[in-house]
Amino acid sequence: MATRGGAAAGRPYELVVFGASGFTGHFVAEEVARVAAGAELRGSLRWAVAGRSRDKLQGVLDRAAERLGKPELKSEVGIILCDVSDPSSLADMAKQADVVLNCVGPYRFFGEPVVKACVENGTSCVDISGEPQFLEGMYLKYNDKAAEKGVYVVGSCGFDSIPADMGVLYTRDNLKGNLTAVESFLTVKSGPEGYSIHDGTWKSAIHGLADQDNLRKLRKQIGHKPLPIIGAKQKRRGLVFYSQEFKEYCIPFMGSDVSVVKRTQRYLHTHLQETPVQYAAYATVGGIASVIKLMFAGLLFFLLVKFSFGRNLLTKYPELFSCGRFTKKGPTQKQIDGSSFTMTFFGEGYCEGQDPQQGKPNVKICTQVKGPDAGYVATAIAMVQAGVALLKDASSLPEQGGVYTPGAAFSKTKLIDQLNKRGIEFSVISKSEA
Which chain regions cross the lipid bilayer (predicted)? Predict the structure, then answer.
């Protein structure tokens, strides 16, 4: 078994941003530049951008140099040419890096070749996938190989699902007692310019929902036993419900957060004997008019996604079928600057010394994770800090390599402190004891 950290000595680059010229990739590259120049790293980070077109990659560095007032970026940052459809070029990229930040999605189509190249060449790898089938499929196929090589493959390190996964751990660490259940509520705010999401995310959702049967088969193959329920069983809420706390209607959150948090809780329970926390995720959607609009769009989506012609329609006309939420161009810089998110966690548990299998929960806690634009700014911050944690906080990672969720990989690192410094803020709102 290779030792913890697994980074090979003497590689030219510590971090490589693969897919840096893509819509999300250029935000990630800019964030690496910002962090590399910051007080903690003081220009010591060796990094590169990677992708198919030298001109486009140079354009990304030129834009970052201009936005950050750092003309030296144009010459100091490496450029690696490689293509996701050419395995030898991916292997060549992996051999030059300690950690690859993979921004090329949808991951169900383009993710595995990068994981394979990284694992085979002793390189750790971070992605921002919100696709449970890809994430869990990579665990099944590469966990043992990654452990053998001593490398860390950490999925869902963007807005999906670092705020939720690390938020549950933060809530647990701040409760006096034993946390047994958490609900999270996501609220996204946009400015006067409104907001739109790049259609790459839309495509991932289309294929993810179309492929639910295969996800069930995959989970059967992995063959985990159900996690034990400790404490009072969490009540499931309806498809639409009114929240007194937020004075808004809410729906279950459709992202990967629940599946990622569950995998983290399984790891912590199995490997570190920690109490597994029950978790449910919701999103606030506003008043009754928003609910009706959303239900109509959702129904149409679920009907069309079942058939290939329907999937083609959804892919071709994202704006029409998402009521303008998803576009082929993505949001403007003004829309991004005006957007922010808040994720509120309501946790309950049992005070120290009380058996959680007896009686009702008697301690409560409310925590919050707040940040800038979720889709691109917070995603870039989270991804880059995950990469930096793999490089600079290696002694706090799990003993052996493998395919991990963020919470499993980073529960003992300083990731939350670093996210706080970069504007994704974790805080305790209230605590109460019965």
Answer: 279-305
